[in-house]
Amino acid sequence: MARLGDFELSGILYAGCDFDAWRDKTDAWLRLRGLESFVSRTKKGEGRSGMAQRLKEKARDAICGRVDRAIIRRLPTAIKPDDHLQSFWRQLEEQAKPFRFEDLTPELRCKVYSSILSADASYNLSQWTPSCSLPAILSVCSTVRKEAMPVYYSSTEFRATCKVSGDRDRGIEKTRNTITSWTRSLAHGALQNLRSINLYVAGLPPRTAGPVESFGNLLQFRFSPVTGPTCDEWQSANPEFALHYHKSLNVQAKERLQKSLARLEKYREVTSLRGEVLVMAIVDILELLEDGKMEREA
C-alpha cells in the first residue's frame, strides 16, 4: 500500500510536483540509457535528425515510466510527432501544473461550497458577537468569497431566541439589538440571499406551570422567490426541554402574523427585495410582542 510521500520519493511526475527538478532527473535518466537526443532541454533541430521510430518510442516509454498514470491518462491522444518529443515534454509540463480550483466550472464550485457549508447548516444568532468569524472557506480569497457567500446565507438556518416572560421589554430589546448588529455586520448584498430565520419566543402568555423555556413557540420564517415570505409555527419547540405543553398561537396572533407577511409580500412585489424581508418580518414580530399582541391559546 502506498504511503504518504511515496510519489515524491519515487521520482514520479505527479500533478503539483516540482517539474523543473523532475525534468533534470529525467534528463539524467535518459542520458544513462543513451537517449540524450530526447532530453527536455534539446532544441528542435539539435542532435541526430531522422532518429529511428523505435528509438523514439523507447525514449517515450522511458519517460512515461516516470510519470503518474493519472497524468498519462490526461495527455492528448494526438501529440505532434516531432523528432525530439518537444510537444510531449510541453504536454507533460502542462498536465503536471498544480490543480486550480478555479479551473472547475461554476456549477461544480458551487457544489463544493454547498458540501462544505452544509456540515454546519445552522447558526445561533443569540450567541453572535461582533468578533464571530465566518466559515474559513469564505476567507480563502475574494473570488471564493464572492461565489460562496450566497451559498452560505441561502443554505444556513439562522436561529434567534426572544424571552418575553419577566422583563418583557428587556428580552425583546436584547433580541432586536442582536439582529440589528448582526445585519449591519454582513457584507453588502448578503441579506438578499437569506432563506431561513427561526425565532423561538419563550414565555408567551398565558403562563403555564413549568420552566419558561419549555412553553415557547417556534416561528420558522422562510423565503422563496416564487412563494415569497412564509411562516410555520410550532409549539413547545425548544429541544432542550421536555415538550409537555402544546399551546399554539391564538387566532388573533395568527391573523396578525399573516397580515404582516401579506404586507411584506406586497412591498416586495414593487421592490427588488428578497431575503431582506425575513429580517423585516422578525422586526414586525418583535413590535407585536412589544405591544403585547402575540399570545398563545388559553
From TrEMBL:
Highest rank taxon of the organism: Eukaryota
Stated name of the protein: Uncharacterized protein
High-level lineage: Eukaryota, Fungi, Dikarya, Ascomycota, Pezizomycotina
